[in-house]
Amino acid sequence: MTMNRERSEQHYNEALEHIVGGVNSPSRSFKAVGGGAPVFMEKAEGAYFWDVDGNKYIDYLAAYGPIILGHAHPHVTKAITKAAQNGTLYGTPTELENQFAKKLKQAIPSMDKVRFVNSGTEAVMTTIRVARAFTGRRKIIKFAGCYHGHSDLVLVAAGSGPSTLGIPDSAGITTNIASEVITVPFNDIDALKQALDHWGDDVAAVMIEPIVGNFGMVTPEVGFLEKLCLYTRQAGALVIYDEVISAFRFHYGAAQNYKLFPDHKAIEPDLTALGKIIGGGLPIGAYGGKKEVMDQVAPLGPAYQAGTMAGNPASISAGIACLEVLEEPGTYQHLFDMADTLTEGIKEAAEHNNIALTVNQIGGAFSTHFCNHEIKNYEDAQNTDSELFSQFFKLMLNEGINLAPSKYEAWFLTTAHQLKDIQETIHAVRDTFSKMKR
Ligand code: PMP
């Protein structure tokens, strides 16, 4: 049976007249899954969504990551309400910012100092500026398929070889800017070494998601980050970790402090960009790093960065409240347990229906790829069946399961998901797989 989503369609048609593309972020459109009206949600609570037509969904999008406690978590809602009652924006410093900065530094010790901004994009963009100010160099090296927000420098695609400069990934980005970016394949230490050998004197920073969340969930191979840090520093460049997705996702701390990497000191970055979870569902970003590097930032140093909304009491209060819940014992274990049960169920259902599926799970997050090869880099993730994914996505939506409309995005568990939700989801997956046309 197909769900009735008449009102969503009406709202979408209206949106198309007033909002470019009908959406305020392209990832919300259904373009990548063959088109159609995206679902207009009306209410969210815990693990659930209700759309404008009254349909209920179990949500695994978690707003692309931030909603790790589920929707409208009472502790976060209370903190936001209190902040709103005390005035939402001051334009002056507040003590809350100190509290939150201290909390983040305790969890991520590579950051001696932090600065709050409003989005992951801003955080990443600024780390690049700071790295350039510190090193006096121009170029950055990034990894194919890692998404770092929509600022000019990081929207540059791979060139045709490891030592080739990038080409713009978006109209409006000049070839001059693209010539400052080098893209190499993830998990390919030789390609990085070659790029550093070739461009090293001019490289300000190497930027990476230490655990990838943007072409599925992908971990670096053993020793990759250690070598990345070593070679980058030998070249006189800085290491920047984009932990906008990965921080507080797998444990109480960033990926750089996670148990996957026992030698934390050897993989410590100079700068870290944060966002998503640390805002508890309100807009936020932050960046931080070694004191001597961060001291480049105005008003102390010559690298300028500012923000009217930065450090606003509502976002900071929501962030503190979210971290307070995440800190409680057992929180991450619950996410892991739910994800384990769900991925087991999905794998069994795929096997039963003879569907080639690779599942990459890291703690409470995982990705599903329609293929029978491993996913170690962006190319692996591209070489998967987009058509099957589109069918899967749309059939699952009809079963009341809300996923991201892109084969590259992860499923995120929240503390609100309970075993009955997982069982219901496995049931939906079984039904969906049996209906898929190959
Ligand atoms: N970095 C990473 C790793 C991300 O996943 C994202 C967003 N998906 C960003 C940066 C950009 O964050 P924002 O959308 O808050 O600007």
TrEMBL record:
Compartments it resides in: Cytoplasm
Cofactor annotation: pyridoxal 5'-phosphate
Keywords: Cytoplasm, Isomerase, Porphyrin biosynthesis, Pyridoxal phosphate
Entry EC number(s): 5.4.3.8
Catalytic activity: (S)-4-amino-5-oxopentanoate = 5-aminolevulinate
Keyword flag Isomerase: yes
HAMAP family found in the cross-reference section: HemL_aminotrans_3
Family of this protein: Belongs to the class-III pyridoxal-phosphate-dependent aminotransferase family. HemL subfamily.
Protein name: Glutamate-1-semialdehyde 2,1-aminomutase
Lineage: Bacteria, Bacillati, Bacillota, Bacilli, Bacillales
